[in-house]
């Protein structure tokens, strides 16, 4: 018998909803749950010529706080390190890129997706090349 925790199922469903939303916005999904060296990017996609690193935060409607509150300085730094690895491994340093946040909440058997483009920049993180 396979058992998956409810919060993991909610997270997976939220990422599916976020990917559908991004496709509906005309973006092309390149990778989901991309991992390297212990770091992860939820969704990597193209918005025309811009490479988008999309962080997905899914919360149940009765959870405390809002999904975006989980995008802490430490999380932003981790995402920045992962994005740098991605750019290196795919030789994409010349590509314009941005970090987006998708806050996903279940509503009446479906999902509400709030999309914040340019949720943060590298200047907003504790990240710097000497720490990487």
From TrEMBL:
Molecular-function GO terms, alphabetical: endonuclease activity; nucleic acid binding
UniProtKB keywords: Endonuclease, Hydrolase, Nuclease
Source species, domain of life: Bacteria
Keyword Membrane: no
Cross-referenced SUPFAM superfamilies: Restriction endonuclease-like (SSF52980)
PANTHER family according to UniProt: UPF0102 PROTEIN YRAN
UniProt-recorded name of the protein: UPF0102 protein SAMN02745704_02221
Species annotation: Paucidesulfovibrio gracilis DSM 16080
